[in-house]
Amino acid sequence: MSRDADLLADLVVLKAHGTGNDFVVLVDPDDTLVDLAADTVVALCDRHMGIGADGVIRLGGPPAAGAFGEVEVDGAQVAMDYRNGDGRVVEMCGNGIRVSARIAVDHGLVAADAEQVAVATRSGVRIVDLHRGDGVVTGATVDMGPASTVAARIGLDPDVDTADLVLAGIPERHWSAVSMGNPHVVATVDDLDGVDLATLGPTVETHDAFAEGTNVNLVEVDPEGHLRLRTWERGVGETMACGSGTCAAVAALADRGVVDLDEGPVEVEVEVAGGRLVVRRDDRGHLLLTGPAEVVARLDLDPGWLARLA
Amino acid sequence: MSRDADLLADLVVLKAHGTGNDFVVLVDPDDTLVDLAADTVVALCDRHMGIGADGVIRLGGPPAAGAFGEVEVDGAQVAMDYRNGDGRVVEMCGNGIRVSARIAVDHGLVAADAEQVAVATRSGVRIVDLHRGDGVVTGATVDMGPASTVAARIGLDPDVDTADLVLAGIPERHWSAVSMGNPHVVATVDDLDGVDLATLGPTVETHDAFAEGTNVNLVEVDPEGHLRLRTWERGVGETMACGSGTCAAVAALADRGVVDLDEGPVEVEVEVAGGRLVVRRDDRGHLLLTGPAEVVARLDLDPGWLARLA
């Protein structure tokens, strides 16, 4: 068997998800699989011949300095080492970090009664507040940092005409540029389900105005003020939920006065295809994203399947 | 917890596949889950919030008379009780039956050294020959029955003009109607990868000429005589492999003299998206389909996930 297969056979392996964004999680507190091969990730994420997932989270122990290159990891209790289904290392995953914090509790990487977990990511250490139901962690709140509605922050070129975005289906003067560290366009629409996002998404994502490409978020606000969101993720396509997109959408609507984040501790609920997410703003201006963290099953990978790993 | 959840917690649950056609398999020799709810099947097959599969196989013990209604189940050692991902009961699954026979051996429903397993399906009892590698069952051969190239057998109406199928992309006089119990159109094409099957498939499937709809199989034969196949499955869409379609394709090509099934025990290899299948014809004129049966993992469903089952 390959080295990865030998090591995988000794780890706890789980399938888990946060609002439908799903992961194979390798519980690796001793950091045996730091060099996880891209081919192994691809094989695990294959939805027909493997387990199937959007990505693989290797949940490591407290990271040593330099574990994530230049990124500060001081004080972290565990590390979320995330790779997309294609094997590429990715900085951050707003749904994956909730799942990581839950599994750190479930599998003894932190105290069973912990209220917070400090999780190292390639975007820095994030403090995750845990929520329990019937004694089990069922969800978590993650500090997603501040939103910036300064257009330049998403690489928007003011010299490029964006009038054709209206033709593409985004209503004129009803779209905002929001940075959550990554670039987002947020547009309000009247009929969310009627939007052909498979056409609109790539048109906007690759528009000349967005130097680095952009995620595309469409929000419908019903008469009672309920928000429903669909997101086209840059380089991925439409997903069941996008954590940073949800925060970007709420920030854009706050900027336009559609929602008010300032009156006391206001929570804004957003319905996405994979469930419900909640956003609030703390007194530092950071957006706090709350959502579920669900485990589907523990997996014992078959020796024959492991033997075919490269 | 629901009744299904209680029972599921006590069963061996596996994820397995045959040439990429994947299944959640419930090993249920005591037939506790005969009344498996459609909602449970849908939840298990959900690729983001469940395990993810094309369907669920409940692998039951030797079926009593009447277990599958009027269908004769005499002499069967196990029963393949198959449901599609949408919860509907389906008669037969050529890839699932190989997987079922393998798991019957792996989990002691038949003798560990069995060479054959008699599997009851809703299409009758099928005898499955097992193939082993390193002592483990890795594949199997299933008698798929005789092919009929009599057009009327697939419900083809001779009074309906099919000239427009040429416009749809199927070359004139290069398509055959084949029944493998279910209806198939088989067409040869020069550039298999260039075909827009997402458009062609539904056009042919729902053509007026086919009273019951039809599966659509496209075959490319290269200069060395190698066969590559893509199948649009009726009611499903393009799949990674279709057992009856593979047999139908070989039968059609034999009918046209492209392959010769009569000279001794000739095996015809067919490459599909999910791997390689082999077809030969026995002296009764039955087509025997050989292919892999692979287990990915054993699953311990999380109590929290089970608790949310209806």
Task: Provide a descriptive summary of the structure in words.
The structure is a homodimer of 310-residue chains. Chain A contains 7 helices and 16 strands. The N and C termini of chain A lie close together (8 Å). Chain A has 310 residues and is of the alpha+beta class. In chain A, 51% of the residues are buried. Chain A has a 16-stranded mixed beta sheet that branches. The mean pLDDT of chain A is 92. In chain A, a hairpin with a 2-residue loop joins β13 (268-272) and β14. Chain A has helices at residues 3-8, 38-45, 94-106, 164-168, 197-205, 243-255, 303-307, and strands at residues 12-18, 21-28, 55-60, 78-84, 116-121, 124-133, 136-146, 175-179, 183-188, 215-221, 227-233, 237-239, 268-272, 275-281, 286-292, 294-301. Chain A binds chain B through residues 13, 15, 17, 20-22, 47-52, 54, 136, 138, 240, 274, 294-302, 304-305, and chain B through 13, 15, 17, 20-22, 47-52, 54, 136, 138, 240, 274, 294-302, 304-305.
Furnish the topology, listing elements before pairings.
Two copies of one chain form a homodimer.
Chain A: H1 3-8, E1 12-18, E2 21-28, H2 38-45, E3 55-60, E4 78-84, H3 94-106, E5 116-121, E6 124-133, E7 136-146, H4 164-168, E8 175-179, E9 183-188, H5 197-205, E10 215-221, E11 227-233, E12 237-239, H6 243-255, E13 268-272, E14 275-281, E15 286-292, E16 294-301, H7 303-307
Parallel strand pairs in A: 2-3, 4-5, 9-10, 11-13
Antiparallel strand pairs in A: 1-2, 1-16, 3-4, 5-6, 6-7, 7-15, 8-9, 10-11, 11-12, 13-14, 14-15
